[in-house]
UniProtKB/TrEMBL annotation:
GO biological process: diaminopimelate biosynthetic process; lysine biosynthetic process via diaminopimelate
Gene assigned in the entry: dapA
Localization, UniProt: Cytoplasm
Purpose of the protein: Catalyzes the condensation of (S)-aspartate-beta-semialdehyde [(S)-ASA] and pyruvate to 4-hydroxy-tetrahydrodipicolinate (HTPA).
The protein's assembly and partners: Homotetramer; dimer of dimers.
Binding site for pyruvate: T47, I206
Name recorded for this polypeptide: 4-hydroxy-tetrahydrodipicolinate synthase
Length: 292
């Protein structure tokens, strides 16, 4: 599963002021990322505001990204939820053409036990031939996938090939890295922790900041993977101050402000998300000009 090593970018979904999907902006975004060193593209993750897209919009966005990408980079599709049967049905009915993997978040809101999480992924593992990246983000789901559960899944389910770890707990990350089976990949879900994550033995990141600064962030990731920590540290500290600002008033509001400043897409979001405040916008603009 080397195709998921390195920098994956969780693409935003650009919107028009009218509320529709901005396909021209999406094309600019995809080209911006491909030309600046990302290793794969993630479509319809949380950053893509997938919860606000209709089924028809989800399909059109996916088809368009596949078309623009034209086989240049692997594509990972986000399919997750808290109804196991519904997610399994979606995976069974999915046309896998042009899709290299699935990113599937741990069930949210209903807060399953660790056994429930294990059984959820066991069902998903059984219904699709596509490789699945488990996504642990307790800040959004309300429940942490423990290291023990992740390792149990990794050892027993052949189609679960990686974990995107966004617990923010480096001890948990290191426990997974230390005991994982050969070939199972551990990806950071926290941009600011990417360098220590890779230095501890991780395999890369699925990123938000990469939308806006793919060249700089891919240089960080690739240098770290190659053991060049001097170069990686330089890029890490270049980006360290802007990363928390991107999330200060919710994701993807911050990164959409930066993308708007860069002329890639509009700042438009769908409710209940709203653009960042004027004060935060000014700070993001200043950092964007300094980094561009």
């Amino acid at each position: 599963m080397e195709k998921f090593r390195g920098l994956g970018v969780a693409l935003v979904t650009p919107f028009l002021e009218s509320g529709g999907v901005d396909m021209a902006g999406l094309q600019r975004l995809v080209e911006h990322n491909i030309k600046n060193g990302v290793d794969y593209l993630v479509v319809q993750g949380t950053t893509g505001e997938s919860a606000t897209l209709t089924p028809e919009e989800k399909q059109s966005v996916l088809d368009f990204v596949i078309e623009v990408n034209n086989g240049r980079k692997p594509i990972v599709l986000g399919i997750g939820g808290n109804n196991t049967a519904a997610i399994a049905k979606t995976l069974q009915e999915l046309d896998p053409t042009g899709i290299d993997g699935i990113l599937s978040v741990s069930p949210y809101y209903n807060k399953p036990t660790q056994e429930g999480i294990y059984q959820h992924y066991k069902q998903l593992n059984a219904v699709t031939p596509l490789p699945i990246i488990l996504y642990n983000v307790p800040g959004r789901t309300g429940s942490n996938v423990t290291a023990q559960t992740t390792l149990r899944i990794a050892k027993e389910m052949k189609n679960i090939v990686a974990v995107k770890e966004a617990s923010g707990n480096l001890e948990q990350v290191m426990e997974i890295i230390m005991h994982k089976p050969k070939g199972f990949m551990v990806l950071s879900g926290d941009d600011a922790l990417t360098l220590p994550h890779i230095a501890a033995g991780g395999d890369g990141v699925i990123s938000v900041v990469g939308n806006a600064f793919p060249k700089r962030f891919s240089s960080l990731v690739h240098a770290a993977l190659e053991g060049d920590l001097t170069t990686a540290r330089q890029h890490h500290y270049d980006l360290l101050e802007i990363i928390p600002l991107l999330f200060a008033e919710g994701n993807p509001a911050g990164v959409k402000r930066v993308l708007s400043t860069l002329g890639i897409c509009k700042e438009q979001l769908r409710l209940p998300l709203v653009p960042v405040s004027k004060g935060l916008a000014e700070k993001l603009d200043d950092f964007t000009r300094a980094l561009s």
